[in-house]
Amino acid sequence: xxxxxxxxxxxxxxxxxxxxxxxxxxxxxxxxxxxxxxxxxxxxxxxxxxxxxxxxxxxxxxxxxxxxxxxxxxxxxxxxxxxxxxxxxxxxxxxxxxxxxxxxxxxxxxxxxxxxxxxxxxxxxxxxxxxxxxxxxxxxxxxxxxxxxxxxxxxxxxxxxxxxxxxxxxxxxxxxxxxxxxxxxxxxxxxxxxxxxxxxxxxxxxxxxxxxxxxxxxxxxxxxxxxxxxxxxxxxxxxxxxxxxxxxxxxxxxxxxxxxxxxxxxxxxxxxxxxxxxxxxxxxxxxxxxxxxxxxxxxxxxxxxxxxxxxxxxxxxxxxxxxxxxxxxxxxxxxxxxxxxxxxxxxxxxxxxxxxxxxxxxxxxxxxxxxxxxxxxxxxxxxxxxxxxxxxxxxxxxxxxxxxxxxxxxxxxxxxxxxxxxxxxxxxxxxxxxxxxxxxxxxxxxxxxxxxxxxxxxxxxxxxxxxxxxx
Amino acid sequence: xxxxxxxxxxxxxxxxxxxxxxxxxxxxxxxxxxxxxxxxxxxxxxxxxxxxxxxxxxxxxxxxxxxxxxxxxxxxxxxxxxxxxxxxxxxxxxxxxxxxxxxxxxxxxxxxxxxxxxxxxxxxxxxxxxxxxxxxxxxxxxxxxxxxxxxxxxxxxxxxxxxxxxxxxxxxxxxxxxxxxxxxxxxxxxxxxxxxxxxxxxxxxxxxxxxxxxxxxxxxxxxxxxxxxxxxxxxxxxxxxxxxxxxxxxxxxxxxxxxxxxxxxxxxxxxxxxxxxxxxxxx
Lengths: 471, 283
Prior knowledge:
The complex is a heterodimer of chains A (471) and B (283). Chain A has helices at residues 6-24, 37-44, 46-50, 54-73, 106-116, 147-157, 270-282, 382-385, 388-403, 424-427, 452-469; strands at 29-33, 77-82, 87-92, 121-127, 138-142, 163-168, 180-183, 193-199, 202-208, 214-216, 218-226, 229-236, 240-244, 251-255, 259-263, 285-287, 293-295, 301-304, 309-310, 317-320, 342-343, 350-358, 361-370, 375-378, 413-415, 446-450. Chain A is an alpha/beta fold and 471 residues long. Chain B has 283 residues and is α/β, with parallel strands linked by helices. Chain B contains nine helices and ten strands. Chain B is elongated and about 90 Å long. Mean pLDDT of chain B is 81; it is low at 26-40.
C-alpha cells in the first residue's frame, strides 16, 4: 500500500480542496435580498430548521468518500498471508519408533507449521503410517528410513509444492537448501531409549539425557554418560525383564529358549570335554534326545571331525577362504591344520574353507561347509591338536557358522514381539536455531486481500448518501 | 450598466408609442381606463366678441341670425391625469438588474404615453406635468426618485389615498413583497373613479433564487439578517410561498377591479404595454 499512487494523490488533493472550500465557506454566506417578507415564511416552516445539521453531514460524507477512495486507490492489502493456492510441503521427522502408529507432539508441530505459513495449504509428509494424525492438512506417507532416505523421498515427492518446510530433530546440512528448517521439538528430550543390546545376560540400554528408565527383573550394573547420551548396563536376574521409559511402549525381554545338543563320535578327548563344559556353562545349550546341534553326531546342524582320508601333507601350503565367519577374530597361526595328515576330497556339495596346496595345485580340503552352511566338516581334529584357547575360539566360530550366531554372542534375552525404539536422532531431539527460508517460488504471491474494491464500494455509498442529502 | 434613460431607451419609447397607437386603433378602445379622451372640451355658452378674441371661436351662425358677433365659450379642458406611485423602498434596490431601474423605466414609458396623448402625469404628491414637451422634465423627476431608507410602499399608498383630488389613473409600481393589507387603502381611490393599476416588478433572482447553502439573507428593506439553510427542499418551499402571495395579490386586484401585471426586472417594456397592460391600463 502506498499513498504515492497517482490516483491516491489526486484524491487526497481533492480532499484538500474540499477542506479548503469548507474552510472558506465556514459559516454562512451573506446574500442581499430586497425583503425578508417571503423568506421569513420559509424559515418558519419546520423543514427549513431540520436541514441545518445535514450540511455538516454532507461535508463529512463527501470528505469521507474522498478519503476512503484515496486509501482505496493506494491499493491496501491484507498482507502476510499466503494465497490459498500456495502449497507448502511440510516434512515432520518422527519422534516415535519407525512403524509406530502414534506420534508424540504431532499436533503441536502441525500448529507451528501452520503459524510459519499462515493461509497456505499444507501437505505433510511423514515416514510411515499414522493412525488418525491430527494435522492441519493432508498427510502423505513416506517409506520409513533414515533421515537422508526420507528427505530424499520428501524432496522428490514434494516437487509440486511452492515451498517446503522441515521440522527436524537435529539440523541436517542438506535440509536448509530445501526450505525452512524448524526444530521438531521446543524442549530437549530426556530419557528416551533409542537402542537396546543384550549380551548374554547383560542388557545395555542407550537413552537420551539423565532421566533413568524404570527396569524390573534386572539390576543396574553400571552407567556412563557422554554428550547427552546415557548407556545403562543391567544384569538380568529374572526370566523376564520389563523396561518402561519416555517415548516408547513398555519393553519386555524374555529369556531365549535353550538349544538341544548331542555329543558323540570323536568328541571325547579331555580337550573336547573341557570345551563342551565351557560351552554349556556360558551358552544356552542343553543335552537333548532331539538335538538341534550335533558335535560329531547326527543333527540338523553339526560339526563333523576326522572325515578326511590319510594323505602326505609334507610341503603343502594352507589356503583360507578370506572373510569367512569361521576365521573371524581367530588366531590362525595358533591352530595346527595339518597335524592329522588328512584331506577331504573336493566335492560339489561343499564349499572349501581351508585347502591344502602344493605347487599351487589344490590337493584337497582341510575344512569345508555344506552349501546350506549347516554342516561344517573337518578333515582332521584341529580342536584336539591345538592350544585349548585357540580351540575354544575355533569352536565358538564353528558353532557360529552352523547356528548363525556365535555362542559367545548369544543373547540370553530377546524382546517379546518386535523391538520398536525411536531413532537416536529422535531420542536426542533438541531445539535449534531455524535455518533456511520459506522460499516461495516467484510465480506465487502472498495473498493480497485487496481492500480496494471494498473501499471503493464504501466511497460510493458515502457519495450516494451525500447525493441523497442534496436532493 | 447603461444610463437609465439613454438614446436607445428613448427610441424604444417612440416605438412603444406607435405600437400602442396601432393597438388602440385596431381595438377602438379609449385611451385610458377612465374612458375619457384626453384634451376633450365641453361647450359652456356665448359671450360678446371683444378685441383680441380668437376669430376661430366666432359663432358665425349666431351672427347670421342675430347680426352680432358672439364668441363660443367652452369649459376648461378636462385632461387625463396619470399619477404614478413609485415604490421607493429599499427593497426595490435588489435584483440584477435592480427592480427600481426597471420600475422607473416603466414609469417613464407610462408618463411618455400620457404626455403624448395630451394628458398630465405626475408622481404621487409631485409636480403635475403636461404636454409632450415636459417629457424631459418627467425624466428628471424619475431620475431623482431613488429608493430611500425608511420609505415603504404602505406609506406611499396611504398618501395616495389621502389625495384631495383623485387622479383618473393611478399606477402603483412596486414589488408588492409585503402584507397585502398595506394595499387595501387603494380601494378608496377606486371608489373615487380612479382606475388603479398594479405593476409588480420582481427580480429574476427573486423568482428563482440561485444560491444554496447556509445563507445570511440580508433584507435591504428591513436592514435585518435571517440565517437560512437553502437547499432543494427550502427552495421549493420558497417558491410555493411566493406563488401563494402572488395569487393573493392577483385575487385582490381582481376583487377591486384593478389591473395587475407581473414583470421581471429584466423584462421588455413593449411586451408589458402591448400585452399585460394593453387591455385597458395603458395611458
